[in-house]
Amino acid sequence: MDAVLDWVVGIMKTIGAPGVGLATALETVFPPVPSEAVLPLAGYTASQGHYGLLAAIIWATVGSLVGALVLYYAGAVLGARRLCAIADRVPLVHARDVDRAIAWFDRHGRAAVFLGRLVPGVRSLISIPAGVNRMPLLQFAGYTTAGSLLWNAGLIVAGYQLAEQWHVVEGRMGEISTVVYVLLALLLAVFVVRRLRGRTTPTS
User: Fold this and answer.
1) What are phi and psi for residue 55, nearest 5 degrees?
2) pTM given for the model
3) Residue pair 56/149 in contact by the 8 Å Cβ criterion
4) How many CB atoms lie within 10 A of CB 83?
5) What is the pLDDT of residues 55-91, one digit of tens each?
6) 3-state SS of the chain?
7) 134-147 in b/e burial notation, b at 16+ Cβ within 10 A?
8) Burial (CB count <10 Å: 0-12, 13-18, 19+), residue 180
């Protein structure tokens, strides 16, 4: 983790605010280091005078959008049929589960994309069903940009204000992320239990 963060800082210091965008785009698609660490660190680096605060927020939002578009197109290329085929090969999952998820997204797509950008653990993944569902591109980009702007600005400004104590933000957001992951795990457990009970219930 420290080695990756050192690399991120090096990129930001070397190429300035565009480095924030690059780091955010990579974090969106390949999240070995969460944005809860990258963004406050970007704010701290801005406080050291390597680039401006506003530039950091703008470039981070551009990077978030670029990363989200990559996942959007991945979902569009994969498509509902392939997802259904994959689902049928996964234990306890069926194609109809994918159909239901896509139907839910069709009803709540705009809110899901906007609010999903504000939820740790969901921020990146929400782009895939948007692509599968072929959500209008401009609409997807607009809601993604709005949600990402709020998330990025909040964490970058916090890191900027805390300066050398930027890691406090990472710690607090890490606690929130843990709660979210636990809730997702519980939901998954409920899903598995219900599916197993459905398999063992005798049919009349």
Assistant:
1) -60, -40
2) 0.73
3) no
4) 20
5) 999 999 999 999 999 989 988 888 767 765 665 565 5
6) CHHHHHHHHHHHHHHCHHHHHHHHHHHHHCCCCCHHHHHHHHHHHHHCCCCCHHHHHHHHHHHHHHHHHHHHHHHHHHHHHHHHHHHHHCCCCCHHHHHHHHHHHHHHHHHHHHHHCCCCCCCCCCHHHHHHCCCCHHHHHHHHHHHHHHHHHHHHHHHHHHHHHCHHHHHHHHHHHHHHHHHHHHHHHHHHHHHHHHHHCCCC
7) ebeeeebbebbbeb
8) middle
Nearest of 144, 120, 145 to residue 131 by alpha carbon? 144
**Amino acid, res. 171:** G
**Amino acid occupying residue 28:** T
